[in-house]
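Researcher: Hi, I'm a grad student and pretty new to this. My advisor asked me to get structures for two proteins we've been looking at. I'm not sure of the right format, so I'll just paste the first sequence and hope you can take it from there.
Model: That works fine. Here's the first sequence with its structure tokens right after it:
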Amino acid sequence: MAARKIMWPFLWQQSSRGYFTSGVLRAYPRLSPQEVTAILRVNEYTQEFQGFSVKSYDSNQLPSNNPIEDTRAEARCLLTQGLLLGIFDGHAGGSCAQVLSKRLFKYVAASLLHPEVVHKYSQAPTDLIQSFNDNYELAKILEELYSSSFKQFLTDLAKQTSEVDANKALERAFLRIDHDMSQEAEPTVAGPASQATLTVATAGAVACVSYIAGAHLHVASTGDCQAVLGSVTENNRWTATKLTEEHNSDNAAEVARILAEHPPNEQDTVIKMDRLLGQLAPLRAFGDFRFKWSRDRLRRLLVPKLGDQALPPNYYTPPYLTAKPQVTHHRLTPKDKFLVIASDGLWDLISPLQAVRLVGEHMSGKVTLNPFRLPKSEMKLKEVNQLLLQRKEGLKMKPLDTNAATHLIRNALGGTEYGVDHGKLSQLLMLPDDMVRVFRDDITVTVVYFDSEFLQKCPA
């Protein structure tokens, strides 16, 4: 979630892209360019594809919290041949975000199947998804519980009569996994795993998930992660299209929605100090069940663990919070070049248009990192000359990083009007653990590149 920015004049100066250290923090030793790069590249990852509307994706994370509360996930759906990419931004700990990153894609993949296929699959289960960059496992005791919940979900899905719709499938998966996490917090359901599931229930997470199948891009968002589409115009200029809306108090429609769900005598307390019940910044989220459960259930499950503070003030007509996503569909064209999905740690520092321009420049400059090769053996001299001119232009924008997500993080933290300021970047990376969270959040970024030739051949 967004870092709380406190203006300490002796520590900070303001720039067009955020805040950077000065004064007192100059006393900290400066990192070398090589040390900065090593830190930025620790969590980067790239995956390439062939014969698909997605050519590749780059992803990376830079922690602020220790441990990091953001998670990410990417997977191919094996039965529908679509690609899922998601970012999960946790709060009150990372447990809810971690659980979502391990479970949600299976729920989405199952929701995309026709009920008859779901029934056949439940009789002879195989892998629904192929995950990429999956570096950790859930505890065995949780796996058994989660497997039981998923089997029940499959049983319910097989009874559905409506036609499969990707937008509805994403919404169904979001709501069902939130429901299952709520049920799993009950000691009678969780059994020996109840302590772990209650920890997940008291934490929360926002999420942004994209599902790409052929030329169809679907984006589901709950909270304040954002997805931005980078496209080129007829004049070869970059445009940025936001495919998500932030669900927070800056969103007037979202505030109106919540107020309409509660009686008039709560209009002054539902949202207070720009937060839900004066406490929670996102107005939609997974978990956070102390904003969803009845007062009786809170007293039974959470008050014994957390004390009376488990009950938010002015808690009269729950639920106040939902995990229901807003889902957007976009039909991809060859003009659509990439998608940037990121937690608000990135968007706190740069705008969607800045992000798109940075990735666009990175695309042009990245080709200069590899030796020059002709794309085909027989080319006219004019064509070769055009390629060389393009490469010459690209050399002006030659990036330090091959990974576009790393490039975005580097520029978000150290960018100025004149390029990346190493001193600024070094100081932000050297902030001690007890200070860094005040000035920047965890940053997680995934950049998805589309195959223009593939999209050119896709039927309308």
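Researcher: Oh nice, that was easy. Here's the second one.
Model: And its structure:
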Amino acid sequence: MADPKNLFVLENFIAGNFVPCSSYIDSYDPSTGEVYCRVPDSGKEEIEAAVTAARDAFPGWSSKSPEERSQMMKKLANLIEHDLEAFAQAESKDQGKTITFARTVDIPRAVYNFRFFASSILHHTTECTQMDQMGCMHYTMRTPVGIAGLISPWNLPLYLLTWKIAPAIASGNTVIAKPSEMTSVTAWMMCKLLGKAGIPPGVVNIVFGTGPKAGEAIVSHPDVSLISFTGSAHTAQRIRERSAPYCKKLSLELGGKNPAIIFEDANLDQCIPTTVRSSFANQGEICLCTSRIFVQRGIYHEFLKRFVEEAKKWKVGSPSDSTASMGALISKEHLEKVKNYVKKARAEGARILCGEGVDSLDLPTRNQNGYFMLPTVIAEVKDESCCMQEEIFGPVTCVVPFDTEEEVIKRANGVKYGLAATIWSCSVGRVHSVAKRLQAGLVWTNCWLVRDLNLPFGGMKASGIGREGAKESYEFFTEVKTITIKH
């Protein structure tokens, strides 16, 4: 256990100042299993202070022109980019992901989120219609909603937090954000840069703590006008219940059980390395990861053999190791949960082809108590198995055969989620036909995780409510008003 004297302590950021909290919770380094910092255990009192700060800052911030807000956001992006290596090191240590992933994905995307919305806010248009017979003209305008409550998860901490903060403040809102209590460090680091970027006190308030305490206080506060949440369906249900009396606007992104459909005419040289990446990137802790792989029977055995060989090449090691493909999972509890899915699959008669319980982990001495797990491939698993129905959110994927297009569409749609899917085929007609019929908000063909932030992001069914993107985020973070002028 780490020496308490060597731990560093985070503070809430309210009204432009760092504010200590009366109680704290431990945050662990997933790669060692040791406590390495302490995070505020905020509640109603801290949220009330943040609401007051956000309310006071709203008139001034919302009255600034989009150009003024844009300039400050670009400056914030530049400041984060200048400190990219420090942010990447912190994100890797806090979350368990590899330093390479944090350096090339998480922090660059956080920078781009601010730049993207700083630009897109300058290009929205409104509608205008005329009724000459009535001597009237109608036009619309969009106004910021007020105080936005933003709750982000632990898997892509700064990446997903900025994906919410950027459109919220670009649109003229003030915000109260709560990162996961397990991954709070990079949000705290960003707070140090807000003043340097010129963003006024109270525009961005970040309060640390747990969902049941700090999160609940945000959601149930009558002056918080909207909630943007990324996380579990169980928590989303609680958010809907607590926010219902206030008719808050909600955007809920709740994960998936994403299928990959691989037809016999797929280019396996491209498909296999990409599908390994889509299964195990960031330890499988991405809501868009592939966890069900349907392979047409004619190529099933070849695919399975080559896929397992490729998965075994992925090196699991210390996040600071630049040669590691995967780091540690977020927590001891989450690691046990993921391992239990593999145990259930084995008990049901499925075959574990590599990974957990089959191969041995080789870790440096200092990482022996970390939360590591090998990429795990399961075959001969039934569609009704929990491993094929529930979101595992770890480095586990199931590979099963199929025969016909009609069959695989029905099976791919046979879960409660509908976030993303991938299709691998050289037939353009088939790609369009299958993509149209899949119940998923995003469908990639012959690729994975190629994103244009202008376009809608979000899922169907239990994968959530609402969409995020240039137009969609702007509409969520604003209210539309129709004005009629009689002349």
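Researcher: Is there anything I should tell my advisor about the second?
Model: You could mention this: The first helix runs from residue 44 to 62.
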